[in-house]
Amino acid sequence: xxxxxxxxxxxxxxxxxxxxxxxxxxxxxxxxxxxxxxxxxxxxxxxxxxxxxxxxxxxxxxxxxxxxxxxxxxxxxxxxxxxxxxxxxxxxxxxxxxxxxxxxxxxxxxxxxxxxxxxxxxxxxxxxxxxxxxxxxxxxxxxxxxxxxxxxxxxxxxxxxxxxxxxxxxxxxxxxxxxxxxxxxxxxxxxxxxxxxxxxxxxxxxxxxxxxx
Length: 213
Prior knowledge:
By secondary structure, this protein is α+β, with helices and mostly antiparallel strands. The chain folds into two domains: about 15-65, no CATH class; about 115-210, Immunoglobulins (Immunoglobulin-like, Sandwich). The chain contains three helices and nine strands, in the order ββαααβββββββ. It has helices spanning about 50-55, 60-65, 85-110; strands spanning about 15, 40-45, 115-120, 130-140, 145-155, 160-165, 170-180, 185-195, 200-210. The strands form three sheets. The protein has a four-stranded antiparallel beta sheet with strand order 6-5-8-9, with no helix packed on it. The protein has a three-stranded antiparallel beta sheet with strand order 3-4-7, with no helix packed on it. The chain is rod-shaped and about 105 Å long.
């Protein structure tokens, strides 16, 4: 009758798992080996001979013992396959966002911009008690917005800030100054238009003559 304290090394229920090339059998009389390569020698159930044969090419002993196989966390579900084709959807999303941003910039982007301004007055001398129609032509880029301006006259008079509203695709605005003269004599007048906004500030002026004998 066998000793129940003796460990059944010959039983199929138990096997030894080692990584050392020279340590494949348990030495007699529990004599420790001179050298052990790899991990600590471990005995016990759950490590089969088939797994031991795959140790050289497969996972390590510690991974097998603790259930941590490559690509799988201990006790966790198998890894999910990678999804492919996401790059195409990402590129389409970027293009769509760019188009929407461009449309928003056109609608809500920068307001009107002044490209040029010119002022004209009557070329012939103004007669007695006459009114000069001074016209300013403001060229814009066609965006909607408001042009703020003022008139300055050579007699020291300056108007309050005036505003002209421009619609989309309107590329020109005509601004009028009516200047009336009374009495006899001759006067050389200057009318100046100052564009306050949008920046930068722009100015243009013209001269004409009032003559009454």
